[in-house]
Design brief:
By secondary structure, the protein is an alpha/beta fold. 41% of the residues lie in helices and 18% in strands. The chain has a 7-stranded mixed β-sheet with strand order 6-2-1-7-8-10-9, covered by helices on one side. It is globular, with a radius of gyration of 21 Å. The structure holds S-adenosylmethionine (SAM). The site of S-adenosylmethionine (SAM) has 23 residues, from loops.
């Protein structure tokens, strides 16, 4: 039975329509939406219905079923949750700077090459934090070939990340000196990632559920706060594919509420949500 709030709504979302939307989200993103996410789905998609001047969710589902690629992209962009921040889960970046980079200086001395993947990079704060850690260690790596690949399913957040523009409040938890060194004050209350940071990063739109147009190997993969939205079987497939792009001792960083326990045995836990490839 629908509540009075639901019946006064601008649009009705029936059980069947919600079920079909969940199925499509799962099919196109890997995201397994719980029954409890009905309000979230409604509020994210209602904007699309208004924008397209549609009258019902049934019409919207018809549009998606017609295979309209542009709308499928808008649909997945609307559903993804893009919460992120600079130096989120700060211990990962301390470990990167204090332990991983000194170790890579020795291990990769012959190739003088470092490859890091930020998988599910959202608006770019994660790859820029990695780039800052690298630039601040650059004295070790003069003349090295260093690249960060930063990918996300959501085309809008990738465009934002690529532009590298951030409102001043995004830097509240970053030391002023760091912010001033790595972000230029391009206009009122906006700072832009410096060319030194941007030069290290390649941004690409990529659905982790699809084929990956690269072979690795990656010295480190950051896949943080992404798989939390996937079911365990999808996580198993994903981490197995990531393991195939890494050599022994390469590293995997995952989100604070995520774990590889009973999901993937190709990595060994070596720190808080930090894994080393073993098999
Ligand atoms: C909560 S954000 C995490 C951002 C960053 N890694 C962090 O920890 O701060 C999750 C990101 O995963 C992306 N994502 C969700 N499903 C995806 C998929 N199938 N392929 C690629 N990215 C996906 C979302 O678009 C979103 O930007």
């Amino acid at each position: 039975m629908q509540s009075s709030a639901a019946s006064e709504r601008e649009f009705q979302l029936s059980d069947g329509e919600f079920g079909e939307l969940r199925r499509l989200v799962r099919e196109h993103t890997g995201i397994a939406l719980a029954e409890s996410k009905r309000e979230l789905v409604y509020s994210r998609l209602v904007r699309r219905l208004r924008r397209l001047s549609l009258r019902t969710f049934a019409e919207y589902l018809e549009l998606l079923a017609s295979g309209e690629a542009a709308e499928l992209e808008q649909f997945t962009n609307a559903i993804t949750t893009n919460l992120t921040s600079f130096f989120r889960e700060g211990h990962h970046f301390e470990f990167l700077a204090d332990t991983v980079l000194p170790a890579l200086e020795k291990r990769n001395a012959a190739t003088r090459r470092i490859r890091i993947w930020s998988a599910g990079c959202s608006t770019g704060e994660e790859p820029y934090s990695i780039a800052i850690a690298l630039q601040e260690s650059m004295a070790r790596f003069r003349g090295w070939d260093i690249r960060i690949l930063a990918t996300d399913l959501d085309s809008q957040v990738v465009a934002h990340a690529q532009a590298g523009d951030y409102k001043a409040e995004r830097f509240e938890k970053m030391a002023d000196a760091r912010c001033e060194r790595w972000f230029e004050n391009t206009r009122a209350a906006v700072r832009t990632a410096s060319p030194a940071l941007k030069s290290l990063i390649t941004f690409r739109q990529l659905n982790l559920m699809h084929q990956w147009p690269f072979k690795g190997p990656f010295d480190a993969i950051f896949c943080r706060n992404v798989v939390i939205y996937f079911d365990k079987d999808t996580q198993r497939v994903l981490f197995e594919r990531m393991a195939q792009l890494q050599r022994a001792d390469d590293l995997l960083f995952i989100g604070h509420s995520e774990s590889l326990f009973k999901v993937c045995d190709r990595y060994q836990l070596i720190g808080k949500t930090i894994y080393r490839k073993v098999l």
